[in-house]
């Protein structure tokens, strides 16, 4: 049965090419898609939700995350000893992968993230299939990046096991891109119609990929802290997208993404959580990290007396990194990232009446600088509510129980590998 939902009276931020933002408007969801955005909308058979005192906007797009690390949130280096790839005594079982991925994706939904690009290192097929079950059960829109196999064959086969809201992609590293094997793997991915997500793990590797003719608009470069100027230029000239994780990259010791060079080259990145062992699992933090870093760069140049000081990044720039530009980096252009008729109804409703943010002087500035996960009220993915009045529409008790069991096993592994818990 087709369901309709009418969100009325909210401040609507569409970030659409054809649909303006509205100080106050309505959003009509018809089944899985946005039917209409405007004022004084009517739909007799719709569930009407009073969105007065809220900001209605597209759900956040997390363009790169290792969901399997969710059991080891905030563990830092102590969590680095457990890996999913082998499934052996120092790795994850299928149950562990399922539990960690599920609790991670539910946490993402609770933070207003409607799309997660999950870079999976799961080696054995049963681990990959367990992750895909968690993707389906979470209700979140996902991209499953299969980075474990040496060829693209399994990534293509996993399509048959993926749920309707999951897209399969191929994960590669930039190391050795000039080799015949890398070129063949990328070519095979394209034959299967798979988007390519590539870890940039050293300077000039992306420019080498460009020189080999590998880059294109079906490629997303992951991480930016190790990119050289020629790498950024290669991304810009090829039409490839980029995902940056400013908090994780800086706290993990990789360095700062070259945000100013990206802006100067008209490359608009998507934002990512990356690894919750060393970074928060929401995009509010990533937006603030990105804009603060760019502002610091500008002020450093100004204090040094340098000429040609660039403009400060605006909140309107960075909120698009977390939504519409993120959708491009995820390979979901035209699917999600904006509120326009015909787009998937991935909608975030944020409470703007809470003391932590009230009064609202500028709605976009409020989302970027002031809001946090406590403001998340409703979350829709494909028209289905994942959060209702601030409460997850999921069996959280089951997810927590499974995560507790898996965490107990992982805690033993991490404790043994690190020599204790101190």
CATH homologous superfamily assignment of the largest domain: Metal-dependent hydrolases
Supply the helix-strand structural class: alpha/beta
Number of strands: 17
Uncertain stretches: 416-422
Percent helix, as a range, is 25-40%
Helical segment count: 13
Shape: globular
State the end-to-end CA separation.
55 Å
In what range is the share of β-strand residues?
A: 15-25%
Average pLDDT value? 89
| Assembly form of the protein | single chain
The top-level CATH class of the largest domain is: Alpha Beta
CATH topology of the largest domain: TIM Barrel
Q: Could you state the order of secondary-structure elements as H and E?
A: EEEEEEHEHEHEHEHEHEHHEHHHEHEEEH
Radius of gyration: 21 Å
Q: What CATH architecture of the largest domain would you give?
A: Alpha-Beta Barrel
Biggest beta sheet attributes: 9 strands, mixed
Count of discrete domains: 2
Structural description of this entry:
With 422 residues, the protein is of the alpha/beta class. It folds into two domains: 108 residues, Urease, subunit C, domain 1 (Roll), CATH 2.30.40.10; 270 residues, Metal-dependent hydrolases (TIM Barrel), CATH 3.20.20. The chain is 34% helix and 22% strand. It is built from 13 helices and 17 strands. The strands form two sheets. Strands 1, 2, 3, 4, 5, 14, 15, 16 and 17 form a nine-stranded mixed β-sheet that branches. An eight-stranded parallel β-sheet has the order 6-7-8-9-10-11-12-13. The longest helix has 23 residues.
